[in-house]
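From the pipeline queue, job 12 of 40. The input is one protein chain; the requested action is below.

Action: predict structure.
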Amino acid sequence: MKPLPLVAGLALFAAPLALETELAHWGEYGARPALAASLTLLMATWWITEALPITWTACVPLLVLPFASVYGDGFGANLLGALAPYVDPYIFLFLGGMGIAAAMQQWNLHRRIALQVMRVVGTDARRLLFGLLLATATVSLWISNSATAAMMFPIGLALIAEFERETGRRLSGYGAALMLAVAYGANVGGIGTKIGTVPSAQLSGFLAQRGVEVSFLEFAAIGVPFVLLFLPVVWLALWRVGRVDAPHADIGQRALAGEGAFEARKQIVERCHERPELVG
């Protein structure tokens, strides 16, 4: 808990309620817009400054809105209104995506997918860049952008380290292109499905509230072609950055082989920790 940001957030919360502004007298809504502005300022301040644990800040509406007569008269009606967004079906849809991400990370499935895709695409520097971009986008179709980037980041770093070790020099351009391939691949791939990124789930929920139900396949029918269209565009843009010091094909092949061997050794070590009788 940080006292100064905590007090600053409370001061900003009180400001729109205390000041005479248009938000305090907004037609039929009365002072509710001022309360919404106050709550937004409070939560934004506490989130940015981390005055409280972020999970505590996320629950602030449950403490404020039931007493604010926003959803009607009576404590019960306002409590149900404040609680409804927390149990929205799309929240659980996104939670399921995070569960898939945790399972993939536990069993290193993302590394296997990435290495296999890059081996299929090719070990030439240009193809390897596209392979990392495609692998990241493929994983990001099923889990969130942030989780994908966090999981693929070590793979990109390992490839860069192997390239620089083989060439004996720093690969600023190609290294930057590989790292950006992880970032852009995660963002572009996340657009393909409803669970690929939070805004996609939010858009589906927004449409559902207005009577327009979009199924998973209907969303993918629009999102996946967009992904397939933009991946080559991103690849060409990144290759312009990476080609200035890109390594030759043999190094790319050895880098993938080294990364695969590292993954195999890691799995053996983890297996031995789980079952010490295998060490002999």
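Job complete. The CA atoms of residues 27 and 193 lie 40 Å apart.
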